[in-house]
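Hi R.,

Here's the chain you asked about this morning:
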Amino acid sequence: MLVMLVPAIASCFLYTPFWEVSFVASYDLGAYPRMPISRIFIIIFGDSWRYLWPMVITSGLQVVAASLVMSAIDRHFRSGKLSLRSPWRLINNSVFPMTIGVIVMCVVSVVWRFVLFGLVVLVQVIADAAGFNAGVTLTIISLMAAVLFVLHVLMITPMLYWAPVMFMYGYKFRDAAGLSFKLLSGKKVFSGLLIPLLICAGIQLLIGFLNVHTVVACVCNGIIFFIINVYITVYVILTFYRISDLDRRDVLPYQLSLPQAQTSAAKPSKTEKPADAARDERTADDGERVKSAKSAAKKGADRSASAQKQKSASDGSDGARERRSEKPSGKNNAAASENGKRDGSADRGGKRNAGKKRERRGEGGDGV
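And the predicted structure, written out as tokens:
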């Protein structure tokens, strides 16, 4: 982050940050209401228009420093390691998209200053015609400058995301401009930029009203430049990863598991479990489910086998009973057949005896 000191130190001697708000502190009330337009132009634009080439060089330093910081943070998020090795390669990754974004934002800021200049002149003419005093006119101009400042921040917010979209996704300028609006739609990003900028603008306005020494003013300008440059660069890359749902290798879920001797000193809380522990628990649960399923299948097979054995045993006992019941019936049939034979032989014997008796009677009758 110390690379941001170079453009901050160079900028603090050339112009004042947040001049579109803090110009109210240098508004010449003594010349009101007959303040010439040229005087209003100098008040609103300050002395920055006199130092064109130094400001171009300062803007170039700002682009290089912001490109280096943003690329280093991006590599840190992707690999989990923060280092500034091969800085020229880091700068080359994002310097072109950053340059395009800074140029467009500078053009927008210049146009916005002209809009502010025209509105201030209009308010002064209307206040002069209505007979307002200098205090009322200055209050109206201050409120108008604050509203325009908020609208200015709202306008440049999507432009800040052009650079990460272009150098991370490889999009062209037109595609990156369209995608940045889609990424920011419905996301709470604007308030994170506006509140710190309003605080710094208020501090700068207070310094202007206090009319401090030039050296103190330059030191305060440099500090504000440094804070705002670092904050905006880091905030943009952080929110870009968040709203784009990109994976980060520098957070806890991507850390490697350490040995037990090292992790015993720092145990996780009861409510939070490391990713490895959760994965081990899921694996153990899956193993237990598989074991329970296997044991249930084995028990089912045992039950079916025992049922088959019982069925076969019952079938065998029924067959034995039938065979036992069939054997006595056979013996009875044999006894009945033998009795029938005996009865038949007895009948035949009786008939032969009756025939012999008749023959004997016949022989007796013939003799008589």
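The radius of gyration is 53 Å.

Let me know if you need anything else.
M.
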